[in-house]
Amino acid sequence: MDKFYQSLMQAPIGMVVLRGRELVIEMVNDTYLTIVDRAREEVANRPLMDVLPELQGQRFPELLRAVWETGNTQRESEALTYVDSHDGRRKYYLDFEYTPLRELNGTVSGIMVTVNDVTVKVEAREKIQAAEQRLRLAIEATNLGTFDWDLENQEFYSSPRLVEIFGFPADDAVSHQQLIEALHPDDLHIREKAVSTSFTTGGLSYEARIIWPDKSVHWIRVRGKIVHDDDRKPLRMYGTAVDITQQKTFTQELEKKVQERTAELKESNHALQKSNEELAQFAFVASHDLQEPLRKIQTFATRIQATEDALTDRGKDYFRRMQQASMQMQQLIADVLSYSRMNAAGQHVEALDLGMLLANVQEQLSERMEAVGATIEMAALPVVKVIPYQFEQLLTNILANALKYIKPDVPPRIVITAGTADGQAIGPLAGDGVYYRIAIADNGIGFDPQYSERIFQVFQRLHGRNEYEGTGIGLAICKKIMDNHHGFITATGEPGQGATFFLYLPA
Amino acid sequence: MAQSFFLADDDDDDRLLFEDALRELSADTNLIMATDGVDLMEKLEETVPLPCVIFLDINMPRKNGFECLAEMRQIEKFRAIPVVIFSTSNEESTIERTYRQGASFYIHKPRTFDKLKSAIRQIMAIDWSLHTVQPSKEKYVLQF
C-alpha cells in the first residue's frame, strides 16, 4: 500500500482524492499542487471549493455533482481552465477524469480526480493552426490553387481554388487524372518533363496551357516541392498553381510589339545600310570617272604647252594656272576616292606593332622630314588589332599634317606617347572598357580650340589654299578609320602652341 | 621588219594621243586601232602577221579587256601575243586579275604627254623574244 501511495504521489499526472459531498481533499500529489499552484498545507483536509474558489463559475462543480448523482465517470479533454496562482490568473488546458469512489455497498463516497496538463501541446497546436490559417489566407489572397500529392499512395488533394483555376466549380470533386487531361495536348510534354525533372531536383516548375470544360484556353504556372523520407525516397509533393493567362497574353502582346518594332528597325537599318553603300558606290564611281576627263585636260594642256610656240606669256601663265587647278582637282578626287574606300566591312584585321608601323610611315615621309628638319620622338607603343593599310593611312595623314602646319624657323618636333584611358573618360559614345590612348603632339601652328571637332569633318579647312595646300579630307579619313576600329580621334590645340591628336582604340 | 602594235581603246581622245605619241617616237611602227573588245577580236582574226604587242584598255563597251584577255588565252594562235594593259584604273583588284590572266605589263594611263611617250618608248624597247615568261608581280606595274 505504501508503495502504491508513493507512486501516486510521484506520478506525472495530477491526482486528488476528494471525500464526501463537501469534496474534502483527502489526498493530493505534487503534480496537482504544481498545477494549481498551492502548498500542501493550504489544501490538506479542506474542501476543494474553499481551496480553489476560482473553480466556482467554471464547469467543474457541476461535473463533480454529476459524478455524485449519477455515479458515472466524467472525463473531458483539453478543457480550458483558469487557476489563480500566486502571480495571477493562469490559463490551462487540462485532460481530466472524475472517477467515483464507492463504498462496499456501492454508494459513492468520494471522487478520484486525475488531471493531465496538456497546455503546451494545445498551445503548440493552436500556433500551427494559426500559422496555417494565415498561410491559407495568404494563398487565397494570391489566388493560388494548392495541391498535395501523396506519391506513395497516389492520392491527390486539390484546393477549391485549384479546381476553379481549371475551370470547374470550386466545390466539384475533380480527380488528378481530370486535371492532367485538361492540359493542352501540345503542352502535355512540358508537364511530363517538369515532373520527371522534379524527382531529381526536388522542385517542380512549369508553365502550360489548359483547356477549360468550356473549351477556352488558359495559361497556368505550376510550382511544387517534393518532400523526401529519410532514405531520400520522395513521399509527397506540395505545390501551387496560378492562372497567368492575362500576364501571358500581355507578354505575348509585348513580344509581338517588340518583334514588329525590331522588324521595322531592321528594315530601316537595311535601308540605311543600302543607302550608305549606294553613297559609297556613287562616290567611288563619280571620283573614278571624274579622273578620266581630268587626265585628258591635263594631257592636252601639256600638248599645247609643248607644241604651241606662238602662245603669249600671258597665255602660257593661264595654262600654268590651269595645270595647277587640275592638279588640285586630281588630289581632291584621289582623296574622295580614298575616303569612299575606307570601309570596315570585309577588311583584314591583324595584330600590328604600332611602333613598327610608325617607323614605316616615318620612312615614307623621310624626304619631307629632312626638308623641314623635323625630329620625331617615340615612346614604346602597343601592339594593336587594326586594318593595316587603314592605320598606315591614318598615321601618314596625321604626321603629314604635323609636317605641313609648321611654324617658320622652328624645326618641327613630334612627340608620340602611349597609355590607356577608361572608356567613360573619353566620351558618351565610348564603351565601358579600357582603351589604348596614342597621343601625337607637334609644335606647329596649332589651331583655335573651337574648331577641335570641325577639323574632322569632310572639306573643312581652317586655312586658305594659298597658305597651306590640302583638300580638307585628310582628317575626315582619319576619323572614318577610327570609326571603323570602334575607336575615337580627338584633338587639342591652341593657336601658335602646337596641336595634339589623341587616338583611342579598344584595348 | 617594222614593229606592229594593236591598241584597243573605246576613247578616241586616248587613241589620238596614243597615235601622236607613237608617231613622235617612230614613223614606221604599224598601229592598228580597235574601238572595243569585239572590234579587237575581229581585227586580230584578219591581221597577218600578228602584232608584236596589244595595248588593251579594260573598261570598254560590248567586250571589256578582261573578256578579251580570257578569249585570247583560249585561242592557240593568240596565246603568245604579249598584252600590255592600258587603263585609267589603279584598282588593286584589276591589276591582280589581269596579272592572273597572263598580261605582261600594266600601265596606269599617264597624265602628261611626255609620260605617255616614255611609256610607249619603254614597251617598244622590249625584245619580246627574251620575254617569253610573265614578269614577276613586282615588275608587272610600270611607273611613270
What does this structure look like?
The complex is a heterodimer of chains A (507) and B (144). Chain A is of the alpha+beta class and 507 residues long. Chain A folds into 4 domains: 2-124, PAS domain (Beta-Lactamase), CATH 3.30.450; 142-243, PAS domain (Beta-Lactamase, 2-Layer Sandwich), CATH 3.30.450.20; 249-340; 342-506, 2-Layer Sandwich (Heat Shock Protein 90). In chain A, 45% of the residues lie in helices and 26% in strands. Chain A has helices at residues 2-10, 30-36, 40-43, 48-51, 60-70, 119-141, 160-165, 176-181, 188-201, 245-307, 313-341, 354-364, 366-372, 388-404, 423-426, 474-484, and strands at 14-19, 24-28, 74-85, 88-102, 108-117, 145-150, 155-158, 203-211, 217-228, 234-243, 350-353, 375-378, 383-386, 413-422, 434-441, 488-493, 499-506. Chain A has a 5-stranded antiparallel β-sheet, sandwiched between helices. In chain A, a hairpin with a 4-residue loop joins strand 1 (14-19) and strand 2. In chain A, helix 10 (245-307) runs antiparallel to helix 11, helix 12 (354-364) packs across helix 14 (388-404) and helix 14 (388-404) runs antiparallel to helix 16 (474-484). Chain A is elongated. Chain A starts with a helix and ends with a strand. The mean pLDDT of chain A is 89. Chain B has one domain: 3-Layer(aba) Sandwich (Rossmann fold), CATH 3.40.50.2300. By secondary structure, chain B is of the alpha/beta class. In chain B, 41% of the residues lie in helices and 17% in strands. The model of chain B has no long low-confidence stretch (mean pLDDT 90). Chain B has a 6-stranded parallel β-sheet with strand order 2-1-3-4-5-6. Chain B starts with a strand and ends with a strand. In chain B, helix 2 runs parallel beside helix 3. Chain B is globular, with a radius of gyration of 14 Å. Chain B has helices at residues 12-25, 37-46, 65-74, 92-100, 113-124, 137-140; strands spanning 4-8, 30-34, 53-56, 83-87, 105-108, 141-142. At the A-B interface, helix 10 of A face helix 1 and helix 5 of B.
